[in-house]
Amino acid sequence: LYSFIWGDFCDWFLEVSKPQLREGDAKHAAFMAYILETSMRLLQPFMPFISEEIWSKLPHQGDTLSLADWPVAGPTDLAVEAEFALLQDAIRASRNLRSESNIPPGKKLNISFVALTERAQTVLNAGNGYLTQLSNLETASIVTPDSPRPENATSSQLAEFEVWLPLEGLIDVEKERAKLEKQLETAQKEHAKVSNKLGNAAFVDKAPREVVEKEEAKRAEFASQIEKLSQRLAAL
Questions:
Q1: Does residue 41 sit in the same domain as residue 91?
Q2: What is the pLDDT of residue 168?
Q3: Residues near 80 by Cβ (< 8 Å), separated by ≥ 6?
Q4: Which of 19, 34, 67 is the last residue of a domain?
Q5: 182 and 153 in one domain?
Q6: Residues 142 and 205 occupy one common structural domain
Q7: Residue 122 belongs to a domain
Q8: What is the rounded distance in angstroms from the CA atom of residue 79 to the CA atom of residue 205?
């Protein structure tokens, strides 16, 4: 319930709904109020006072939340949920590329989304407005795998699509390359250090299991960093 209210409802539904709310879409506003009112009924047993206060400000039936009917689950559309999850992944990927490249959140970008499957092509095209709105883009281009890749573009690849962010004019490419090379060198040294420790049979045999597992997790994390940094360098 916590994840739904703060994650699904606040982080996504409210953000997606802002254009409709700005335009005064009463039907959409009523639907949003219905979701929040239903959420308060679910929350009441755990947080009775704050849920009662919020519920009282919303359209509702009855005099008190504690006596309101318990919500009844309706039908679900797993296909629609999966499609929106793909859009969420695309938005997160574009935001991550912006953050990794130290580009200010307020700077509008031109990003290409490379659809690797027919489903991705359909979903990304249909959700182009959401991609533009929630990633703060000037343009969101949905392209095919045979499209020419922009020069000096950082990228991120997921199962059904790839994201290209051209960096020309946004950052100092040579400075970014030097920074990534330094980070890669550090990650490689740390990975080698942990690998040597785990390669020491005396350490593995004598150290508590949780200590060994912690070192194994560190090695996996450094390996992941090396892979990501190498990919970003190759894209520049």
A1: no
A2: 84
A3: none
A4: 67
A5: no
A6: no
A7: yes
A8: 49
Alpha-carbon distance of 111 to 134, in angstroms, equals: 13
Reading the block at residue 6, the tokens are 């703060």
The domain total for the chain is 3
**Does residue 25 carry a pLDDT above 80?**
yes
* CATH code for the domain in which residue 191 is found: 1.10.287
Q: How many CB atoms lie within 10 A of CB 96?
A: 13
- Decide which of 144 and 152 is more confident: 144
Backbone angles phi, psi at 99, to 5 degrees: -65, -45
Inter-CA distances, 207 with 166, 168, 191, 210, 212, Å? 47, 49, 19, 8, 7
pLDDT at 228: 86
pLDDT in tens, 48-107: 999 999 999 999 989 999 999 999 988 999 999 999 999 999 999 999 999 988 899 999
Q: Are 160 and 178 in a shared domain?
A: no
In 3-state terms, what secondary structure has residue 162? Answer: strand
Phi, psi of 197 (to 5 degrees): -65, -45
- Residue where a domain stops, chosen among 67, 88, 103: 67
CA distance 26 to 59: 13
Domain match, 159 and 179 both: no
Taking a C-beta distance cutoff of 8 angstroms, is the pair 203, 152 a contact? Answer: no
Q: Report helix, strand or coil for 110.
A: strand
Tell me the whole-structure pTM to 2 decimals.
0.77
Structural domain that includes position 160: 78-166
